TrEMBL record:
Protein name in the entry: Single domain-containing protein
Transmembrane segments: none
Keyword terms, alphabetized: Secreted, Signal
Compartments it resides in: Secreted
Signal sequence region: 1-23
Organism: Chironomus riparius
Length: 108
């Protein structure tokens, strides 16, 4: 598809849904060092999940959590989406972030 077709699809979707993505950052992430022999690596401890520094975890709750190089953590999720008729939409949790946001199901 051409860029103009993508742009038109984006405009149409903005007319149908009002949505806010969610993003938040934690500068006080707990850091854990794990060693195997002389090889030590640092991890962010986020809700008892160890994420290697510089990597990203995509959860089954339609969120993305990154352990950043400065030992902070970044969280991203779909946010809340409501169509013009007031129908609340929820992510399709059978997909990982961000695809789960693109597979919205209507729940009334």
């Amino acid at each position: 598809m051409t860029k103009s077709v993508y742009f038109c699809l984006l405009l149409i979707s903005l007319c149908i849904f009002e949505s806010d993505a969610a993003a938040w950052f934690n500068r006080n992430t707990k850091i854990v060092t794990k060693c195997e022999g002389s090889n030590c690596q640092k991890y962010c401890d986020i809700d008892n999940r160890l994420i290697l520094v510089g990597t990203t975890l995509k959860t089954d709750q339609c969120e993305q959590i990154t352990c950043d190089a400065d030992f902070s953590s970044s969280y991203y999720s779909c946010g809340i989406a409501v169509d013009k008729n007031g129908c609340t939409l929820t992510p399709d949790y059978s997909f990982k972030y961000p695809e789960c946001c693109n597979k919205m199901k209507c729940v009334t």
